[in-house]
Amino acid sequence: MAIRIIVDSSADIEEDYARDHGIQIIPMTITFGNEEFAEGVDITRTEFFQRLVETDELPRTSQIPPMVFQDIFQEIVTAGDTAVVITLSSHISGTYQSACIAAAPFKESVFVVDSENATIGERLLAERAWALREEGLSAADIAYCLDQEKKDIRLVASLDTLEYLHRGGRISGAAAAIGGLLSIKPVVGVVDGDVVVLGKARGSKASRNMVFEEIEKAGGVDLTRPIWVAYSGLSDKTARKYIADSLAIATEKGLISSPDEIEMPLTLVGAVIGTHVGPGGVAFAFFARE
Protein backbone atom coordinates (compact mmCIF):
# COMPACT_ATOMS: atom_id res chain seq x y z
CA MET A 1 0.00 0.00 0.00
CA ALA A 2 1.56 3.26 -1.16
CA ILE A 3 1.11 6.73 0.28
CA ARG A 4 0.48 9.33 -2.41
CA ILE A 5 1.40 12.98 -1.88
CA ILE A 6 -0.75 15.31 -3.97
CA VAL A 7 -0.53 19.08 -4.40
CA ASP A 8 -2.20 21.64 -6.62
CA SER A 9 0.03 23.39 -9.13
CA SER A 10 0.13 26.63 -7.13
CA ALA A 11 2.76 24.98 -4.88
CA ASP A 12 5.19 25.82 -7.70
CA ILE A 13 6.96 22.46 -7.65
CA GLU A 14 8.86 21.63 -10.83
CA GLU A 15 7.78 18.54 -12.77
CA ASP A 16 11.18 16.84 -12.50
CA TYR A 17 11.33 17.46 -8.74
CA ALA A 18 7.82 16.08 -8.32
CA ARG A 19 8.65 13.01 -10.38
CA ASP A 20 11.87 12.32 -8.44
CA HIS A 21 10.08 12.66 -5.08
CA GLY A 22 6.86 10.87 -5.94
CA ILE A 23 4.64 13.95 -5.67
CA GLN A 24 1.58 14.27 -7.90
CA ILE A 25 0.69 17.74 -9.17
CA ILE A 26 -2.89 18.56 -10.14
CA PRO A 27 -2.93 21.53 -12.52
CA MET A 28 -5.09 24.56 -11.90
CA THR A 29 -6.56 26.46 -14.85
CA ILE A 30 -5.57 29.87 -16.19
CA THR A 31 -7.67 31.70 -18.75
CA PHE A 32 -6.43 34.41 -21.11
CA GLY A 33 -9.52 35.79 -22.84
CA ASN A 34 -11.20 32.71 -24.31
CA GLU A 35 -8.12 30.49 -24.08
CA GLU A 36 -7.77 28.04 -21.19
CA PHE A 37 -4.47 26.57 -20.07
CA ALA A 38 -3.69 23.84 -17.56
CA GLU A 39 -0.83 25.24 -15.49
CA GLY A 40 2.42 23.44 -16.20
CA VAL A 41 0.80 21.34 -18.92
CA ASP A 42 -0.38 23.71 -21.65
CA ILE A 43 1.76 26.69 -20.69
CA THR A 44 5.17 26.95 -19.05
CA ARG A 45 6.03 29.48 -16.39
CA THR A 46 8.19 31.53 -18.74
CA GLU A 47 5.56 31.44 -21.48
CA PHE A 48 2.99 32.70 -19.00
CA PHE A 49 5.04 35.75 -17.97
CA GLN A 50 5.92 36.52 -21.58
CA ARG A 51 2.23 36.63 -22.35
CA LEU A 52 1.35 38.53 -19.16
CA VAL A 53 3.67 41.44 -19.94
CA GLU A 54 2.46 41.62 -23.53
CA THR A 55 -1.26 41.92 -22.77
CA ASP A 56 -3.45 44.44 -20.99
CA GLU A 57 -6.00 41.76 -20.15
CA LEU A 58 -5.52 40.16 -16.74
CA PRO A 59 -5.78 36.36 -16.88
CA ARG A 60 -8.20 34.54 -14.61
CA THR A 61 -7.56 31.49 -12.45
CA SER A 62 -9.96 28.69 -11.57
CA GLN A 63 -10.02 26.37 -8.58
CA ILE A 64 -9.81 22.64 -9.15
CA PRO A 65 -13.39 21.29 -9.21
CA PRO A 66 -14.44 18.39 -6.94
CA MET A 67 -14.96 16.03 -9.88
CA VAL A 68 -11.25 16.19 -10.77
CA PHE A 69 -10.31 15.20 -7.24
CA GLN A 70 -13.04 12.53 -7.15
CA ASP A 71 -11.58 10.65 -10.11
CA ILE A 72 -8.09 10.73 -8.59
CA PHE A 73 -9.25 9.70 -5.12
CA GLN A 74 -11.33 6.83 -6.51
CA GLU A 75 -8.30 5.49 -8.36
CA ILE A 76 -6.20 5.74 -5.18
CA VAL A 77 -8.70 3.83 -3.07
CA THR A 78 -9.26 1.21 -5.78
CA ALA A 79 -5.51 0.60 -5.84
CA GLY A 80 -5.53 0.14 -2.07
CA ASP A 81 -3.40 3.23 -1.48
CA THR A 82 -3.77 6.25 0.78
CA ALA A 83 -3.10 9.93 0.09
CA VAL A 84 -2.15 13.21 1.68
CA VAL A 85 -3.50 16.17 -0.30
CA ILE A 86 -2.02 19.63 0.26
CA THR A 87 -3.77 22.68 -1.16
CA LEU A 88 -3.41 26.40 -1.59
CA SER A 89 -4.80 28.34 1.40
CA SER A 90 -8.57 28.09 1.71
CA HIS A 91 -8.58 31.87 2.27
CA ILE A 92 -7.19 32.35 -1.24
CA SER A 93 -8.83 29.59 -3.29
CA GLY A 94 -11.77 27.20 -3.15
CA THR A 95 -9.52 24.28 -4.09
CA TYR A 96 -9.30 23.08 -0.48
CA GLN A 97 -13.09 22.94 -0.24
CA SER A 98 -13.25 21.03 -3.53
CA ALA A 99 -10.76 18.48 -2.23
CA CYS A 100 -12.70 18.09 1.03
CA ILE A 101 -15.96 17.48 -0.85
CA ALA A 102 -14.30 14.86 -3.03
CA ALA A 103 -12.54 13.20 -0.08
CA ALA A 104 -15.69 12.87 2.06
CA PRO A 105 -16.48 9.27 0.93
CA PHE A 106 -12.85 8.24 1.51
CA LYS A 107 -12.16 9.54 5.02
CA GLU A 108 -10.06 6.52 6.00
CA SER A 109 -7.81 6.80 2.95
CA VAL A 110 -7.58 10.43 1.79
CA PHE A 111 -6.44 13.21 4.11
CA VAL A 112 -6.71 16.84 2.98
CA VAL A 113 -4.49 19.54 4.48
CA ASP A 114 -5.12 23.27 4.06
CA SER A 115 -1.60 24.70 3.77
CA GLU A 116 -2.86 28.14 4.85
CA ASN A 117 -0.09 29.34 2.57
CA ALA A 118 0.79 29.78 -1.09
CA THR A 119 3.50 29.09 -3.65
CA ILE A 120 6.79 28.12 -1.94
CA GLY A 121 5.11 28.22 1.47
CA GLU A 122 2.82 25.43 0.28
CA ARG A 123 5.83 23.75 -1.30
CA LEU A 124 7.66 23.59 2.05
CA LEU A 125 4.70 21.68 3.46
CA ALA A 126 4.70 19.26 0.51
CA GLU A 127 8.42 18.64 0.95
CA ARG A 128 7.83 18.00 4.64
CA ALA A 129 5.16 15.46 3.71
CA TRP A 130 7.69 13.67 1.52
CA ALA A 131 10.25 13.61 4.36
CA LEU A 132 7.68 12.21 6.79
CA ARG A 133 6.71 9.54 4.28
CA GLU A 134 10.39 8.60 4.00
CA GLU A 135 10.43 8.22 7.79
CA GLY A 136 7.66 5.64 7.51
CA LEU A 137 4.69 7.59 8.89
CA SER A 138 1.16 6.72 7.80
CA ALA A 139 -0.92 9.11 5.71
CA ALA A 140 -3.03 10.01 8.74
CA ASP A 141 0.05 10.75 10.84
CA ILE A 142 1.64 12.79 8.05
CA ALA A 143 -1.50 14.91 7.74
CA TYR A 144 -1.57 15.44 11.51
CA CYS A 145 2.09 16.54 11.56
CA LEU A 146 1.53 18.91 8.65
CA ASP A 147 -1.40 20.54 10.43
CA GLN A 148 0.84 21.14 13.43
CA GLU A 149 3.95 22.29 11.58
CA LYS A 150 2.27 24.54 9.01
CA LYS A 151 1.89 27.14 11.76
CA ASP A 152 5.67 27.59 11.70
CA ILE A 153 5.91 28.34 7.98
CA ARG A 154 6.19 31.99 6.99
CA LEU A 155 6.08 33.72 3.62
CA VAL A 156 7.23 37.31 3.11
CA ALA A 157 7.47 38.98 -0.29
CA SER A 158 8.29 42.23 -2.02
CA LEU A 159 6.13 43.14 -5.02
CA ASP A 160 6.45 45.70 -7.75
CA THR A 161 2.79 46.63 -7.37
CA LEU A 162 -0.42 45.56 -5.62
CA GLU A 163 -2.42 46.07 -8.81
CA TYR A 164 -2.57 42.36 -9.64
CA LEU A 165 -3.65 41.31 -6.15
CA HIS A 166 -6.37 43.97 -6.20
CA ARG A 167 -7.63 43.14 -9.68
CA GLY A 168 -7.73 39.48 -8.71
CA GLY A 169 -9.86 40.29 -5.66
CA ARG A 170 -7.22 39.19 -3.14
CA ILE A 171 -6.88 42.58 -1.37
CA SER A 172 -9.04 45.70 -1.03
CA GLY A 173 -8.79 48.83 -3.13
CA ALA A 174 -7.63 50.77 -0.08
CA ALA A 175 -4.75 48.37 0.47
CA ALA A 176 -3.86 48.45 -3.22
CA ALA A 177 -3.62 52.25 -3.10
CA ILE A 178 -0.48 51.85 -0.98
CA GLY A 179 1.37 50.49 -3.97
CA GLY A 180 0.03 52.98 -6.44
CA LEU A 181 2.44 55.74 -5.51
CA LEU A 182 5.60 56.41 -7.49
CA SER A 183 8.51 54.11 -6.54
CA ILE A 184 6.56 52.56 -3.67
CA LYS A 185 7.26 48.84 -3.27
CA PRO A 186 4.71 46.96 -1.16
CA VAL A 187 5.82 44.17 1.16
CA VAL A 188 3.26 41.45 1.76
CA GLY A 189 3.00 38.25 3.73
CA VAL A 190 0.70 35.30 4.27
CA VAL A 191 -0.78 35.58 7.77
CA ASP A 192 -3.30 32.99 9.00
CA GLY A 193 -3.92 32.00 5.41
CA ASP A 194 -4.63 35.51 4.12
CA VAL A 195 -2.48 37.78 1.96
CA VAL A 196 -1.71 40.82 4.11
CA VAL A 197 0.07 44.08 3.26
CA LEU A 198 2.86 44.36 5.84
CA GLY A 199 4.23 47.72 4.78
CA LYS A 200 5.52 49.93 1.99
CA ALA A 201 8.99 51.07 1.05
CA ARG A 202 10.30 53.66 -1.36
CA GLY A 203 12.67 52.05 -3.81
CA SER A 204 14.19 48.60 -4.20
CA LYS A 205 16.85 48.87 -1.48
CA ALA A 206 14.35 50.02 1.15
CA SER A 207 11.97 47.28 0.06
CA ARG A 208 14.69 44.67 0.46
CA ASN A 209 15.51 45.96 3.94
CA MET A 210 11.84 45.86 4.90
CA VAL A 211 11.56 42.25 3.75
CA PHE A 212 14.45 41.31 6.04
CA GLU A 213 12.87 43.27 8.91
CA GLU A 214 9.52 41.54 8.40
CA ILE A 215 11.25 38.16 8.34
CA GLU A 216 12.67 38.89 11.78
CA LYS A 217 9.29 40.13 13.03
CA ALA A 218 7.77 36.88 11.80
CA GLY A 219 10.07 34.90 14.07
CA GLY A 220 13.30 34.81 12.11
CA VAL A 221 14.55 31.94 9.99
CA ASP A 222 15.26 28.48 11.36
CA LEU A 223 18.46 27.88 9.41
CA THR A 224 18.40 24.17 10.21
CA ARG A 225 15.30 23.71 8.05
CA PRO A 226 14.59 24.21 4.34
CA ILE A 227 14.28 27.70 2.85
CA TRP A 228 12.90 28.61 -0.56
CA VAL A 229 13.11 31.80 -2.59
CA ALA A 230 10.82 32.55 -5.53
CA TYR A 231 10.59 35.31 -8.11
CA SER A 232 7.99 36.41 -10.62
CA GLY A 233 8.72 37.71 -14.11
CA LEU A 234 11.34 37.11 -16.77
CA SER A 235 14.50 37.90 -14.77
CA ASP A 236 15.88 36.45 -11.54
CA LYS A 237 18.46 39.22 -11.06
CA THR A 238 16.62 40.94 -8.18
CA ALA A 239 15.96 37.63 -6.43
CA ARG A 240 19.62 36.65 -6.61
CA LYS A 241 20.53 40.01 -5.07
CA TYR A 242 18.09 39.29 -2.21
CA ILE A 243 19.70 35.90 -1.63
CA ALA A 244 23.24 37.31 -1.62
CA ASP A 245 22.27 40.09 0.79
CA SER A 246 20.40 37.78 3.15
CA LEU A 247 23.34 35.38 3.33
CA ALA A 248 25.71 38.29 3.95
CA ILE A 249 23.52 39.54 6.81
CA ALA A 250 23.34 36.06 8.35
CA THR A 251 27.13 35.79 8.17
CA GLU A 252 27.64 39.23 9.72
CA LYS A 253 25.31 38.31 12.59
CA GLY A 254 27.23 35.11 13.22
CA LEU A 255 24.23 32.93 12.40
CA ILE A 256 26.34 31.10 9.82
CA SER A 257 30.10 30.95 9.33
CA SER A 258 29.97 31.58 5.58
CA PRO A 259 27.37 32.14 2.84
CA ASP A 260 28.12 28.67 1.45
CA GLU A 261 26.76 27.07 4.61
CA ILE A 262 23.10 27.63 3.72
CA GLU A 263 21.26 26.53 0.61
CA MET A 264 18.56 28.87 -0.70
CA PRO A 265 17.12 27.32 -3.86
CA LEU A 266 15.41 29.71 -6.26
CA THR A 267 12.38 29.04 -8.42
CA LEU A 268 10.09 30.95 -10.76
CA VAL A 269 6.48 31.12 -9.59
CA GLY A 270 3.87 29.60 -11.83
CA ALA A 271 0.92 31.03 -13.68
CA VAL A 272 -1.63 30.89 -10.84
CA ILE A 273 0.50 32.83 -8.39
CA GLY A 274 1.91 35.00 -11.18
CA THR A 275 -1.61 36.08 -12.11
CA HIS A 276 -2.10 37.56 -8.65
CA VAL A 277 1.33 39.10 -8.00
CA GLY A 278 2.49 40.15 -11.46
CA PRO A 279 6.15 40.42 -12.51
CA GLY A 280 8.91 41.82 -10.31
CA GLY A 281 8.16 39.98 -7.08
CA VAL A 282 10.55 38.18 -4.73
CA ALA A 283 9.38 35.89 -1.93
CA PHE A 284 11.00 34.03 0.94
CA ALA A 285 9.37 30.98 2.56
CA PHE A 286 10.87 29.46 5.69
CA PHE A 287 10.23 27.84 9.05
CA ALA A 288 10.29 30.39 11.86
CA ARG A 289 12.87 29.78 14.59
CA GLU A 290 10.63 31.32 17.28
From TrEMBL:
Keyword Manganese: no
PROSITE patterns: DEGV (PS51482)
Sample GO molecular function, one term: lipid binding
Phylogenetic placement of the source organism: Bacteria, Bacillati, Actinomycetota, Coriobacteriia, Eggerthellales
UniProt-listed Pfam families: DegV (PF02645)
Protein name: DegV family EDD domain-containing protein
Taxonomic superkingdom: Bacteria
Keywords: Lipid-binding
